[in-house]
Amino acid sequence: MKKRNAPHSGPPDKGSFPLDHFQECEEEAEAYRICLNKELGIPKKCKEEAKSYLVCRMDKGLMAPHTMQELGFVEESTWEYEQKAREDLVRDIENLTRASKERVRKEFAKEHSKTNN
Question: Which residues, 6 or more positions from 93, have their beta carbon under 8 angstroms from its beta carbon?
Fold first, then answer.
């Protein structure tokens, strides 16, 4: 006769994501869904709701405990950080364009003054 394994009593293995059969984190999940709907499906705009949902799952033993950094919640992955990086990039491009136009203008003026003398 085969021996059966004992049921798993701790949090699930890393990478598994068991269903919340008893809706223990339904309130947090609903807040996240509402945020996604409001933000047109952009998850980075709903980081706080996602964190709350994951904390609830960890607190209820529905997933193994992890730090938020381990779950990918770092400053560089926020919507605000990316928005600032895009704004900085646009500003840098505008500065390069201005500097380039100024160099061309100066070169043209220099060449023009040589031909007029």
Answer: none
Judge whether 46 and 32 are in contact, CB under 8 Å.
Answer: yes
- Two tokens at 91? 């500003």
Q: Residues 66-91: pLDDT tens digits? A: 999 998 888 776 678 788 888 999 99
Enter the tokens of residue 114: 């040589």
Model-level pTM? Answer: 0.57
CB contact set of 45 (below 8 Å; sequence gap of 6+): 35, 39, 79
Backbone angles phi, psi at 58, to 5 degrees: -65, -45
Cα–Cα distance measured from residue 33 to residue 30, given in angstroms and rounded to the nearest whole number = 5
Q: Measuring CA to CA, which residue among 53, 64, 51 is closest to residue 16? A: 64
